[in-house]
Write a structure and sequence with these properties.
The protein is α+β, with helices and mostly antiparallel strands and 210 residues long. It folds into two domains: 1-81, lambda repressor-like DNA-binding domains (434 Repressor (Amino-terminal Domain), Orthogonal Bundle), CATH 1.10.260.40; 83-210, Umud Fragment, subunit A. 20% of the residues lie in helices and 28% in strands. It has helices spanning 6-16, 21-28, 32-39, 47-56, 62-67, and strands spanning 83-87, 110-114, 121-124, 139-145, 157-161, 165-172, 179-184, 187-193, 197-207. A hairpin with a 6-residue loop joins strand 6 and strand 7 (179-184). Helix 2 (21-28) crosses helix 3. The longest helix has 11 residues, at 6-16. The radius of gyration is 19 Å and the shape is elongated. The two termini are 20 Å apart.
């Protein structure tokens, strides 16, 4: 039996809620042409649409909609197991330069609720420097790590400086412990001074963009 994909699940929600593109466009405040391209044509399903579905229909299981796990409708008895985590749709992480991030003053675009996840924040990814490990359009969940914590080269980190917000593999320079090397599959490695790091997070989950 062919496994359904994320578009199949979105269409299943539309059928369950008796929605067509016109009704959904008004409800979700997404342009009708954009929505039609995603649902009825060959456009990719956006995180904006997924978030709109979960925001408007809390009975829909996020684990089912996003990852295809469990059933479409979640039981009331298990709703308390889900923790809402801020999602910053307007703050993509990249290999390029981006504004810094401080959760104390940033306003979340919305919230993502997934079971068995310990992420504290979610961000969309732009750019292709981390492919094939992380693709442009994916959403990553992160937890904050302190500068003195052990840096593991196998892990992926989100590094925030005054000028950049990026995800990379990292390792400390053998000759200069104040330098942190940033490594990715599709971009030359480069060092940054650890004193220039405003905050550092470890990527603990990834929602793949289909």
């Amino acid at each position: 039996m062919k496994k359904d994909n994320i578009k199949d699940r979105v269409i299943a929600v539309f059928r369950y809620k008796n929605l067509n593109v016109n009704k959904a466009s008004k409800l979700f405040e997404i342009p009708q042409r954009t929505l039609n391209r995603q649902v009825n044509e060959d456009g990719k399903i956006s995180m904006e649409l997924l978030y709109a579905i979960l925001d408007n229909f809390p009975e829909i299981s996020p684990a089912w909609l996003i990852m295809g796990e469990d059933e479409m409708l979640r039981e009331e008895s298990v709703v308390s197991q889900f923790t809402s985590v801020p999602f910053y749709n307007d703050l993509p992480v990249s290999a390029g330069l981006r504004d810094s991030f401080d959760p104390s003053y940033e306003k979340a675009s919305g919230f993502i609720s997934l079971p068995s996840q310990n992420a504290k924040f979610y961000f969309p990814v732009s750019g292709t420097s981390m492919e094939p490990e992380v693709f442009a359009g994916d959403v990553v969940g992160v937890v904050r790590v302190e500068a003195h914590e052990k840096i593991t080269p196998e892990a992926i980190y989100m590094i925030v400086t005054n000028d950049a917000r990026m995800i990379k593999h990292c390792y400390i320079d053998e000759n200069n412990p104040e330098l942190l090397w940033c490594v990715s599959p599709n971009y030359p490695s480069f060092p940054i001074n650890r004193a220039d790091i405003c905050a550092m997070f470890r990527v603990v989950s990834r929602i793949q963009y289909f």
